[in-house]
Amino acid sequence: MKFGVSSYVWVSPFSNHTIEQLKHAKELGFDIYEIGVEDPSSFDPAYVKHEADKAGIQVNICGAFGPERDISSDASRYRDKGMEYIRTLIDMASVFGSPYVAGPMYAATGKARMASEEERTRQRAYAVDNLRDLAGYAATKGIRLALEPLNRFETDFLNTVDQGVELLDEIGCDNVGFLLDTFHMNIEEKSLGQAIRRAGSRLFDFHACSNDRGTPGQDHLDWDEISKALRDIGYDGAVVIESFTTDITEIAKAVSLWRPLAASQDALALEGLKFLKENL
């Protein structure tokens, strides 16, 4: 098991101008720096890989999915943009040696509405067909796709692991699995441990944060059960602290972050990492 931190803890968007974050994360003790790729043109993957190698830290890839990157949209131009974007992320993952591209890539984040059954059926068909196509492209580069269930306020498509298992079975590709996030799971799952066990060998990435999206361990989550469930399924992948900073208004508004969640972002990262290493 390796411990990582999301770029969102400090910066948004990650770019060539924030490259010092790689060294900073390594100095804090992290094995992995997971880039939330908001704008693929904001950094040069070859340059970032060179700097990451110098710092001695692994770079993994997570996506950001706005309305114009929606592979299940009724608008073909948005489906096309989403497909192009995810293929770009797969290419980036190949450069970095990231084992996965992660995120809620099945639909636009924030797309939560009372859709008709006809709309849902059509949306699901688009998502399944397009994810199957992307899985084939990713397989040629040895990359996995880790789909993230989100809470009900952020998507109406995929909220629970049980729903995710049904979707994965329908897609039918071994390199498509889960990114599970304790923040979303705390809202949607009856039992975090049972949900992790249900994901089993299909768990490709794991985001760890508190129930308020802050420091892991400073919360009401049952980390003993989370740890036991991860051991039960033999999970040995990335455990990434994903939180956000109120210093960047746009990202804070997007995730409804109205107050600081720690004394500082470094404190959140350091205290969270210490807790995770001791408990996982």
Automatic annotation (TrEMBL):
<feature type="domain" description="Xylose isomerase-like TIM barrel">
    <location>
        <begin position="23"/>
        <end position="277"/>
    </location>
</feature>
<dbReference type="InterPro" id="IPR050417">
    <property type="entry name" value="Sugar_Epim/Isomerase"/>
</dbReference>
<dbReference type="Pfam" id="PF01261">
    <property type="entry name" value="AP_endonuc_2"/>
</dbReference>
<protein>
    <submittedName>
        <fullName>Sugar phosphate isomerase/epimerase</fullName>
        <ecNumber>5.3.1.-</ecNumber>
    </submittedName>
</protein>
<dbReference type="InterPro" id="IPR013022">
    <property type="entry name" value="Xyl_isomerase-like_TIM-brl"/>
</dbReference>
<keyword id="KW-0413">Isomerase</keyword>
<dbReference type="InterPro" id="IPR036237">
    <property type="entry name" value="Xyl_isomerase-like_sf"/>
</dbReference>
<dbReference type="GO" id="GO:0016853">
    <property type="term" value="F:isomerase activity"/>
</dbReference>
